[in-house]
Amino acid sequence: MMTTAPTVQPSAAIGMAPVVYGQSDRPPRGDYSRANGDYTCAQDYAAYTEADHDTYRRLYERQSALLPGLASQHFIDALPMLGAKDRIPRFEEVNERLRRATGWEIVGVPGLIPEVPFFSLLAQRRFPVTDWIRKPEEFEYIVEPDIFHDLFGHVPLLFNPVIADYIQAYGQGGLKAAELGSCEMLSRLYWYTIEFGLIRESGGLRAYGAGILSSSGELAHSVRSTEPQRLPLRLERTMRTLYKIDSYQPTYFVIDSLQQLFDLTAADFTPLYQQLRDQPTIAADALEPGEVAL
Ligand code: HBI
Ligand code: FE
């Protein structure tokens, strides 16, 4: 699960753990003292223990068995290209395949990083992947995104050309949003698509969001449970909708196709930010008057 867009104190010296505010009040995990100026850090492959590789293998084995009928076929088709199911992969090995496929590469980071460095990396087709893995006792649940969330949840769809272009466009849009003070609105769009998005497929719903795809419980819950509400993705609505970081989502937004997602980014969001700035946010579990859930 990923915490929300961190707000970093300007005084946060590079190299120290950024004072990361958001809804998660836990201190950031990860060793930020190893990070470069752009928050990237080299993957310290020797630091992984056999217990780390075993945790990764067990998470991968369990999660990949849950995918049929629940995960988007786009994801299922792309997962084998990650090429790492028995041990934590060397990022450079993944990058040889990923660069050939869509020109993306993954780079190590110590954990969540501030918005502008995050957007800058995405705009350069460099996806930040947390370089540590949860402890065995956290096997069932972890709040922060660890290497399994990022590698299993996010990286396979970077092999998909449409998503690859969307995420770079999101990064470019994010740099603009930062100038306009509209990061929070844009991070809601990211949250309800790349992290927790659903897509219509095969006459039903499937998950394409990394936060769902890397969660053993939320995958079936998001697609099959009658508990959450599901709404069609609309920029004006989604960008006003608050989200929760430490529970299943009460609302999921549904797209008809990956192309629809990419087409959304074609527009310049500046007028939209101005229009939405004065409108109240919507609670994560609320329905607006006249709205009918899918
Ligand atoms: N940092 N490492 C990392 N991974 C993310 O997914 C991430 C982040 N920082 C901010 C963030 N995501 C989102 O809030 C963006 O929408 C800003
Ligand atoms: Fe994520």
Task: Give the structure's gist in a few sentences.
The chain has helices at 50-66, 73-78, 91-102, 115-123, 147-154, 161-179, 183-195, 210-213, 218-224, 235-238, 258-264, 270-277, and strands at residues 7-8, 20-21, 105-109, 126-130, 198-201, 204-207, 229-232, 251-255.
Q: What does the average pLDDT come to?
A: 91
Task: Tell me the structural class.
Answer: alpha/beta
Ligand inventory: 7,8-dihydrobiopterin, fe (iii) ion
Uncertain segments are 1-17, 19-23
Terminal CA distance reads 25 Å
Largest sheet: 4 strands, mixed
Strand content: 5-15%
Treating each run of at least 4 consecutive H or I residues as one helix, how many helices?
Answer: 12
- What order do the strands of the largest sheet run in, or round the barrel if closed? 6-5-8-7
Give helix % range.
Answer: 25-40%
**Whole-number radius of gyration?**
18 Å
Element pattern in H and E: EEHHHEHEHHHEEHHEHEHH
- Give a count of the beta strands, DSSP E runs of length 2 or more: 8
Shape summary = globular
Account of the 3D structure:
The protein has 294 residues and is an alpha/beta fold. Helices cover 39% and strands 11% of the residues. The chain has helices at residues 50-66, 73-78, 91-102, 115-123, 147-154, 161-179, 183-195, 210-213, 218-224, 235-238, 258-264, 270-277, and strands spanning 7-8, 20-21, 105-109, 126-130, 198-201, 204-207, 229-232, 251-255. It has a 4-stranded mixed β-sheet. Strands 1-2 form a two-stranded antiparallel ribbon. Strand 3 (105-109), helix 4 and strand 4 (126-130) form a beta-alpha-beta unit. Helix 4 (115-123) crosses helix 6 and helix 6 runs antiparallel to helix 7 (183-195). The longest helix has 19 residues, at 161-179. The chain is globular and about 55 Å long. 42% of the residues are buried. The structure holds 7,8-dihydrobiopterin and fe (iii) ion (FE). Fe (iii) ion is lined by residues 2, 145, 149, 153-154, 195, 210-211.
